[in-house]
Design goal:
The chain is an alpha/beta fold. About 25% of the residues lie in helices and about 25% in strands. GO terms for molecular function: exonuclease activity; ligase activity; RNA endonuclease activity.
Length: about 350
């Protein structure tokens, strides 16, 4: 029996429905799980996504042929039934459920199992075959509860204020930045942001999302305005001339990679907060088991370790090579360059 989803050099392909899921090369029809750059590439003829993802795709990819649906809404591509379900990764992030002739496959995209209060709670979707990420698919990755991490961030900001320093938090402009905003808004009314985060913020608030007010960092603002305040910037701004205006400042990196101290040293960060938009080891295992899948394909991350463990647990698993994972680098965009 042919697979419902095939692994091709362009991406995950459904032959019966004639569409791709998060393709990394241009195709005619593409279902997009979320708006991060490694999953949402330019050049496709038609884009299908969740309605909350649409504004971000328009910001990042410009004018295209877009179609959006809500979670748990079904549509048919030829004889294939397709629906989107919450992934909990970032705003609008979805898993793609594909059903054909009584068989169900689910493509997770990126996901996390702790509800962050913004992105929607991850929804396990029963299926025969589950395609899962494994970004943090090692037992060493075990996240503290979100509120505990938020408390650590607030305490760090307070200590910087006592030392007369500006607190610069490094966070991806889509996903992490919105969570960090939520964490710091409780202790300060002045939150400064880099242009890339400002642009994302504007699109989300215009789409109806209620987020804390922010102030865009511009060349006209005096250096004194930042003293003892909080600044949120994307990874691409770290270590650039753009940062000089905040001196004296302390840098805190918000990333799951901060679970390992060596990563904090390599980033020359003053503090590291293991705040991740991906599931940790236990979250990955819980998600896989909750689907009841008989077969699991493991994509980007620690594929070999995670798939081997699943096989040892009696869950048939295999590795799949994809081109996902690049959003961890978050390339510099034109609005960011203009702010340097």
């Amino acid at each position: 029996m042919p697979s419902i989803i095939e692994f091709t050099d362009k991406g995950l392909y459904c032959p019966a429905g004639q569409f791709y899921i998060d393709p990394w090369k241009p195709v005619d029809k593409a279902f997009i799980t979320h708006a991060h750059s490694d999953h949402a590439k330019p050049g496709n003829k038609y884009y299908l996504c969740h309605r909350d993802t649409l504004p971000m795709l328009q910001l990042r990819l410009g004018d295209n042929h877009y179609q959006s649906i809500g979670w748990n809404e079904s549509l048919y591509m030829n004889e294939v039934k397709v629906s989107l379900h919450p992934a909990g990764h970032i705003i609008g992030s979805s898993q793609v459920r594909v059903e054909h002739k009584g068989e169900v496959w689910v493509v997770s995209g990126d996901y996390k199992t702790e509800n962050d209060g913004i992105s929607g709670a991850f929804e396990p979707v029963p299926c025969n075959t589950f395609i899962t990420e494994s970004t943090f698919g090692l037992p060493i990755y075990h996240w503290k509860p979100q509120e505990a991490i938020y408390t650590d961030i607030r305490n760090w900001i307070h200590s910087n204020q006592l030392a007369g320093k500006t607190s610069v938090l490094i966070a991806y402009s889509l996903g992490k930045a919105q969570r960090v905003l939520k964490a710091v808004a409780e202790i300060t009314g002045n939150i400064f942001v880099h242009g890339a985060i400002w642009n994302t913020h504007q699109v989300l608030t215009q789409a109806g999302w209620r987020l804390p007010d922010v102030i865009r960092v511009t060349p006209e603002l005096p250096k004194e305005a930042f003293k003892g305040q909080v600044v949120i910037a994307p990874p691409s701004a770290d270590g650039t001339p753009w940062m000089r205006r905040f001196a004296p400042y302390s840098v805190g990196v918000c990333s799951g990679w901060m679970q390992v101290r060596g990563h904090q040293r390599r980033r020359n960060a003053d503090a590291g907060f293991a705040l991740s938009d991906h599931a940790d080891w236990n979250g990955l295992l819980e998600a896989v088991k909750a689907t009841g899948a008989e077969k699991v394909f493991v994509t980007h991350g620690f594929q070999s370790v995670f798939s081997r463990y699943l096989n040892e647990q009696g869950i048939a698993a295999g590795e799949v090579k994809t081109e996902y994972g690049a959003e961890e680098e978050e390339a510099v965009t034109e609005p960011e360059k203009a702010d340097e």
